[in-house]
Design brief:
InterPro entries: Ald_DH/histidinol_DH, Ald_DH_C, Ald_DH_CS_CYS, Ald_DH_CS_GLU, Ald_DH_N, Aldehyde_DH_dom, Aldehyde_DH_Superfamily, Succ_semiAld_DH. One of its GO terms (biological process) is gamma-aminobutyric acid catabolic process. This is Succinate-semialdehyde dehydrogenase/glutarate-semialdehyde dehydrogenase. This protein has about 475 residues and is an alpha/beta fold. The chain has two domains: about 270 residues, Aldehyde Dehydrogenase, Chain A, domain 1 (3-Layer(aba) Sandwich), CATH 3.40.605.10; about 180 residues, Aldehyde Dehydrogenase, Chain A, domain 2 (3-Layer(aba) Sandwich), CATH 3.40.309. Helices cover about 40% and strands about 20% of the residues. It contains 15 helices and 22 strands. The strands form six sheets. It has a seven-stranded mixed beta sheet with strand order 14-15-16-13-12-18-19, with helices on both faces. A six-stranded mixed beta sheet has the order 9-8-7-10-11-21, sandwiched between helices. The termini are far apart. The structure holds adenosine-5'-diphosphate. Adenosine-5'-diphosphate binds next to helix 7 and helix 8.
């Protein structure tokens, strides 16, 4: 149960398969509140059969949806957005209960998540083709943009709402249908979205939410030839597996995978702004985002000053149950996440890093971990290479631009990066030299519906959000008209 919901219809213990609500059977999945370990509800454990049914229903619904005018699709999406905003407190409560982030942050995610539905409800009407001068006197060349067809989506637990809307918004706006498998830790936020989607008037079968076996559902999604695009947010390891599985049916892939974001503070930075940016880039969602600052590089001249200010700010962060007042950081999602954070901190300290604050499990127990700042961190430590995905800020020292660019780019990942500097020439040089899909300059918060989100190298393929985002769900068709 989830306390204090205004509209209990939003918390539904069922999956939506091909237009039918399916209740949990005896092998249902328990969903737990990571702050307390309590079971908040159960969802069905579905597999390949249900995935196939959902894909076939999506295929059937898609043609009619694509045939509607863009304005009609836009209006339904706009209603979905309005319903999300009107129910943001309830959606936030469901999210906090299953994911753990503080309620204020959860409601923030709902507003952010809704912004993708709003943005793409608008973009639906701006899917323009092209007319190109012909190559012969009697020829005309016309370019049409058409929906790619049925889209399968697999989403993670760290943003149980926004990672869905960032995919569903452009897919449905473009005239595609979607079959979604949310993370098993956080299915209720996805289900609540489906409830609101029905209320908004999405046609039956157009949007299914399948809870259950990732492997079985994933195998059907990747193997089924009706699915023309797979969009996935999660680990690079699973992304690569899905890429392999999708090869025989030559699907278009959208992959938002892991990161290892550098956050660079140059000597000429505004230090207070850099500390504020680091707090957001590192500790938002308790460090569990793929754009979280993973490695903080501070130039020699400001190292001690920055470390002191960051330590003071981090010592003031309050960890606790996301439903409690004034809490900044919730629990980690599960025991494996806690073990990874402990491993990274233990490895760094054993190799000579110094704990400035934190560095241990939190006294609240469970999967709570103290927000941590480490100084004296070096390239041979685990935190330099792997994504920690927790509330740990490791401070590396650097001397000069070339040194830090080399270190920042010395990773197979390339999602987000950040730096703080004031010299305008340096700002351009560094921004261009960083091998990342996104660069935050003098800001720690870069995600927004208006901008293209995505990575290079092992961080993925494609972009989400912005006018580029809808392109990912469109095919380009060329008409050659002769005899004119
Ligand atoms: P995370 O570390 O964020 O949990 P994962 O890549 O393990 O990253 O999970 C992201 C999503 O991928 C989740 O919805 C999960 O259920 C799903 N998933 C995990 N393994 C597979 C698989 N073999 N096939 C399809 N989906 C999978």
């Amino acid at each position: 149960m989830i306390p204090h919901l205004k509209d209990n219809r939003l918390f539904r213990q069922a999956a939506l398969v091909a237009g039918n609500w399916v209740a949990p059977g005896p092998d249902a999945i328990d969903v737990r509140n990571p702050a307390t370990g309590e079971i908040i509800g159960r969802v069905p454990k579905l597999g390949a059969t249900e995935a196939r049914a959902a894909i076939e229903a999506a295929q059937a619904a898609q043609a009619g949806w694509a045939a509607r005018t863009a304005a009609e699709r836009s209006q339904i999406l706009r209603r979905w957005f309005d319903l999300m905003v009107a129910n943001k407190e309830d959606l936030g409560r469901i999210l906090t209960a299953e994911q753990g982030k503080p309620l204020k942050e959860a409601i923030g995610e709902i507003v952010y998540g809704a912004s993708f539905i709003e943005w793409f409800s608008e973009e639906a009407r701006r899917v323009y083709g092209d007319v190109i001068p012909g190559h012969q006197r009697d020829k005309r060349i016309i370019v049409l943009k058409q929906p790619i067809g049925v889209v399968a989506a697999i989403t993670p637990w760290n943003f149980p709402n926004a990672m869905i809307t960032r995919k569903a918004g452009p897919a449905l706006a473009a005239g595609c249908a979607m079959v979604l498998k949310p993370a098993s830790q956080t299915p209720f936020s996805a289900i609540a979205l489906a409830v609101l989607g029905e209320m908004a008037g999405l046609p039956e079968g157009l949007f299914s939410v399948l809870t259950g076996s990732a492997q079985a559902i994933g195998a059907e999604m990747t193997g089924n030839a009706l699915v023309r695009k797979l969009t996935f947010t999660g680990s690079t390891e699973i992304g690569a597996e899905l890429y392999r599985q999708s090869a025989p049916t030559i699907k278009k892939l959208g992959l938002e995978l892991g990161g290892n974001a550098p956050f660079i503070v140059f000597n000429d930075a505004d230090l207070d702004a850099a500390v504020e940016g680091a707090l957001i880039a590192k500790f938002r969602n308790n460090g569990q985002t793929c754009v979280c600052a993973n490695r903080i590089y501070v130039e020699d001249g400001v190292y001690e000053a920055f470390a002191g200010k960051l330590r003071a700010a981090v010592s003031n962060l309050k960890t606790g149950n996301g439903f409690d007042e004034g809490v900044d950081l919730g629990p980690l999602i599960d025991a494996a996440a806690l073990a990874k954070v402990e491993e990274h901190v233990g490895d760094a300290v054993s190799k000579g890093a110094k704990l400035e604050t934190g560095g241990a499990r939190h006294k609240l127990g469970g999967t709570f971990y103290e927000p941590t700042v480490l100084t004296g961190v070096t390239e041979d430590m685990l935190v330099a290479r792997e994504e920690t995905f927790g509330p740990v800020a490791p401070l590396f020292r650097f001397g000069g631009e070339a040194d830090v660019i080399r270190q920042a780019n010395a990773t197979e990942f390339g999602l987000a990066s950040y730096f703080y500097a004031r010299d305008i020439a340096k700002v351009f040089r560094v921004a261009e030299a960083l091998e990342y899909g996104m660069v935050g300059v003098n800001t720690g918060l870069i995600s927004t519906a208006e901008a293209p989100f995505g990575g290079v190298k092992l961080s993925g393929l494609g972009r989400e959000g912005s006018r580029y985002g809808i392109e990912e769900f469109l095919e380009t068709k060329y008409l050659c008209i002769g005899g004119v």
